[in-house]
Amino acid sequence: MSIVNEGTLVQDAEAGHPRYLKILDDPLYSTLVDLQDLVNYETAQFWRNRGVRALHLPVTTSSISSPMGLGSDSLPVQVDLFGIPTYLADSMQFLLEYGIRIASDGCYYLMPSFRGEETDPTHLAQFFHSEAEIPGGLDEVMDVSDAYLRHLAAAVVRDLAEPVAGFAGGIGHLTEFLDRPTARMTFDDAVAALDGAPEYFQFHDGWRTINRAGERRLMELYGPAVWLTHSDHLSVPFYQALDETGHKALNADLLIGPGEIIGCGERHVDAERARTALAAHAVPEEDYDWYLQMKQERPLRTAGFGMGVERFFMFVLQHDDIRDLQLLERANGRPAVP
Asked: How is domain 6-325 classified at the architecture level of CATH?
């Protein structure tokens, strides 16, 4: 199996063997191109069969989906665009929420997302995001996102079994996923199941998060795939709706392969509830004025999800470093060639 991580990239460049030339004859990358093509085609097929419309959206925004504040899980990438402070899209979820008020059966996109953190074995600074917004609530979006992941996995088994097996050591992990229902547990259940062990969880003032080691342990015990639902509300971004207790989010993460591959949740129906959540997360309301006005004028119960495409490839290929699974490398603070 090819290993093209940051350490070897530097060595290769010094030896006169830049990555973009090295990978031309590496069979991993022809398989990666096949997987990229499959995801594009099968995503369109999946949503077309459900009447969900594709949106063409910009890569710039003034409303980041993980603003600095409680529950933020990313650093925004700000640029100066002709004198206007602008963000590169970390997610276009808010515009999907706008779009579903036009495309009433739902909408989706497949496009790049930008994050300000350093890369690591499960995280890219620029990655492809498959996101959708549908009518309904948490149960509906969990069902459709689980079906989407199964649709993609079945397509890999049907069309790319041989090359994938060569890198993954077989396709048993895919058929096992397809043959078994996805387990489901709340965050409170997960804390109890793992005895609240500090090697698995971080405990903050009134809220908790789980780390990669905790995700892996849950998959070992209950997998291969696990839905982790109802996080502490302050541990997730403000846009996730609250359950009847007012303390838990109507959200869910699907864990498989490297860990979280899909994140989903129900949204606040109206401006009043969104405004209350902004205050609780210490996020300035004025930064989301248009979003609040939209919910004031057109209240609507919707839910959405996002899947990191390269993390899906990690699962498919049983590969342990996501940095290898980008055709053209991008890392913050480093020049990109080509």
From this structure: 2-Layer Sandwich (3.30)
Return the C-alpha torsion angle 28, 18, 312, 195, nearest 10.
Answer: 120
Class of residue 311 by CB neighbours under 10 A (exposed 0-12, middle 13-18, buried 19+): buried
Domain borders along the chain are 6-325
Please tell me the distance from the alpha carbon of residue 165 to that of residue 160, in angstroms, as a whole number: 8
Q: Is the peptide bond before 112 cis (omega within 30 degrees of 0)?
A: no
Per the CB < 8 A criterion, the answer to whether 227 and 184 are in contact is yes
Q: What tokens were used for 151?
A: 């649709």
Question: Structure pTM?
Answer: 0.93
Q: What would the 3-class secondary structure string for 90-147 be? A: CCCHHHHHHHCCCCCCCEEEEEEEECCCCCECCECCEEEEEEEEEECCHHHHHHHHHH
Strands 126-135 and 107-114, sheet pairing: antiparallel
Whether the Cβ atoms of residue 205 and residue 249 lie closer than 8 Å to each other? no
User: 82 by DSSP, 3-state: which?
Assistant: coil
The secondary structure element, H or E, covering residue 80 is: strand 77-81
Gap between the Cα atoms of 45 and 175, Å rounded: 21
**Three-class secondary structure of residue 185 per DSSP:** strand
Mean of the pLDDT values across residues 35-47?
Answer: 98
The 3-state DSSP class for residue 317 equals helix
Token output for 127: 């990655």
Residues in the chain: 338
d(CA 189, CA 46): 32
The structure tokens 């498919």 sit at: 316
> pLDDT tens, 155-204?
999 999 999 999 999 999 999 999 999 999 999 999 999 999 999 999 99
Q: Are 163 and 31 in contact (CB under 8 A)?
A: yes
